[in-house]
Amino acid sequence: MEITAPVLENEEKEENNDQQPQQSPEALMPPPKPNPRGVIQFLTIIGQVEGHILLPPTNKATKYEHVIPQLVACAENSEVDGLLVLLNTMGGDVEAGLALAELIAHLGKPSVSLVLGGGHSIGVPLAVSAKFSYIAPSATMTIHPVRMNGTLVGAPQTYEYFNKTQDRVMDFITAHSNITHDRLNTLMMDTQTMAQDVGTILIGEEAVQEGLIDAVGGLHDAMEKLYEFIGKA
To answer: Which phi and psi (to 5°) does residue 54 adopt?
Structure first.
């Protein structure tokens, strides 16, 4: 009579442990390879540019205290070769917007901007701060004088401060684009284009014709131009 040895439960568990669990299709895919043309960092400026006053939580906002460290890290990181700025902003705080624009303009690395949807008000200096700027065919840019909401002191010094702030914005725009100071001032003070407001709305190609933006294009055009700058650098 032949005696069969019983199978122990521990042996069954050991055999089951030897079987490796099935991996997901994503885990089996090879890791993405670095782009040989260069590494691009993307920066999005959306909604309203928030300054020193906190906006309501229901507002879409870009906080300058978040973006400034990103720009500094981009300039410091030796693995980043260029910066692509994507804008869809209604404008916002003048000083916060100018601070971000100055950082982009003096980043020390190739930079390209792309206006998608809108680049209004203080979004204009942000759009022209890059080395080369694009605007989507359907995107718009609103140019208007510096304004302030709330209680104002009706004194000559207040108007003088407004004029100086206006000059800061205009000087930056003319220094980083092909529009002249006189033409920019004319567009800002136009009373025929906008209802219940002063200024001008430029759509796509119009912004290029005025010398404000370099070219009409999309994401592919902006990335190709940035890779071109990276290759030259």
So the answer is: -70, 130
List the alpha helices (DSSP H) in 5-128. 9-18, 25-28, 64-76, 94-105, 123-128
Question: Containing domain of residue 193, as a range?
Answer: 37-50+57-232
| CATH number, position 179 | 3.90.226.10
**Of residues 113, 120, 144, 177, which has the active-site annotation?**
144
- The count of structural domains within the chain is 1
Residue 188 tokens read as 């800002």
Q: Is 144 a catalytic residue?
A: yes
pTM value is 0.82
As a whole number of angstroms, the distance between CA 77 and CA 88 comes to 26
Catalytic residue from among 111, 113, 121, 177: 121
Those residues of the chain that have pLDDT short of 50 are none
